[in-house]
Design brief:
five-stranded mixed sheet; 3 domains; Globin-like; 397 residues
Length: 397
Amino acid sequence: MQHDSGPPGFSAALPQRPWRALPADLVAILGSELDVLGDETIAAIGVEIPEYARPLEGRFGRNVRRGVEESLKRFVTLAGDDGAPAGSLPAIYRQLGAGEWRDGRSLDALQAAYRLGARVAWRRLGAAAAEAGASTDTLRLLAESIFAYIDELAGESVAGYAAAQAAAAGARESRRRALAELLLREPAADADAVSAAAREAGWTLPRELAAIALASPHDEAIAAALDADALTAADVIVLPDPEGPGRRGALERALEGHAAAVGPAVPPREAARSLRWARATLALDVAADHGLAFADERLVELALAAGAEPLGALRARRLAGLDALAPGRRERLLQTLDAWLLHQGSAPAAAAQLHLHPQTVRYRLAQLRELLGEQLDDPRARLELTLALRAPVHQYS
């Protein structure tokens, strides 16, 4: 049904507006029933709709009462007058729909209340019409009129609900965008300000996040495909818990066909660093070749292109297995590893450089294998270890 004066796309009256064909003398009889019918409708709603089983007080109660009263008066005003303009429906029906959204309910209860109101109206008005001697055709027209009219009111509430939902989504998205910009600010924003912005945006600050740099501003398709807790701002995405189960696969699917780079996982206060790395990675040719690149997997390229900070991270990542060692032992193993790498895995050559017995070097290499795992056998890992050993210790990051 299309409402002549309402917004397109929403339910409205039947084209013929059946209530206009009701006999004038019947309309007068219907009008005399309105007060009792209003009370019956409100009472029935309170009893039969669980969500509304409470005293109809406050804003909610006033809106329900006003909605019932206005709907009945308007129905009788329009009934029987084929020349009466349709007019705009009172805003109260949209307000009822918007109120359901604000109160965290679906439209099920309100739609049930409309259907219940139609049944109550038909029961009383149909009985009054029958008692007045209305014909079968007139009774059929009255029933059609009541239910068509209720559909029109319900359509307005659907519109109000949708409008409130859209407004809330827009405000939420605006707050989330502001939060992303705050997180990515450099120097880092005050922690209390970030926490407050996160609360306003309904976003839980994660232990870690990653910034994702896009070659061009994100579009609606990307936003729709991303995890719901991802934040977007222009050409940047902030992804919480980037190393969580299934995260990488979901990200690759969402960004398929887009040139993008993912920065390292960092605490929220270091989001700007993750973005710097993501943008540096995106600038590498490898990012364009692969579509989606990960900074943690491009540390050598980043170190050669950008220097100190990625090199320090490379050292921290590759040598993490030695962190728990006592300083003296750690230093001896690092010296041995450096010499072994420089001499392309020759224990005797490394021993000669260090003025040690080859067996001592082999013993240390066995310890290194226990601590560093398979890195010593992986060509790329060995290259990264070689570069990592040349990073100043204070550049761990």
